[in-house]
């Protein structure tokens, strides 16, 4: 059960990081500022790591390890996934939604 929770956190983090990279690329001129480049590079790196580990976990499967290792894995992946979902929400709330409102106002 703990292993499943860790895998769910891992996959959720992969989806959130990958979604952030795609949406940020489409909604911002991220390459024009150091902060934007950092956000894209760091989240992109997380997306690559999480995507790779998700594929590995789902296709290759996980070998049996101790309960402590599984609890730590679940805590790490779920925490990072929650932070990535928060970052994705911030992007939507602060950048995408206001842009959508401006576009509707122009029509």
TrEMBL record:
The chain crosses the membrane at residues 6-24, 36-54, 74-92. The keyword Transmembrane applies. It holds the Pfam family Phage_holin_2. It comes from the Bacteria. Keywords: Membrane, Transmembrane, Transmembrane helix. This is Uncharacterized protein.
């Amino acid at each position: 059960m703990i292993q499943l929770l860790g895998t769910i956190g891992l996959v959720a983090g992969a989806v959130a990081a990958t979604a952030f990279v795609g949406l940020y690329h489409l909604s911002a001129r991220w390459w024009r500022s150091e902060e934007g480049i950092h956000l894209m590079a760091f989240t992109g790196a997380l997306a690559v790591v999480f995507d790779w580990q998700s594929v590995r976990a789902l296709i290759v499967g996980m070998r049996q390890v101790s309960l402590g290792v599984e609890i730590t894995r679940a805590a790490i992946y779920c925490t990072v996934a929650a932070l990535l979902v928060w970052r994705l929400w911030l992007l939507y709330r602060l950048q995408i939604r206001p842009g959508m409102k401006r576009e509707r106002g122009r029509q």
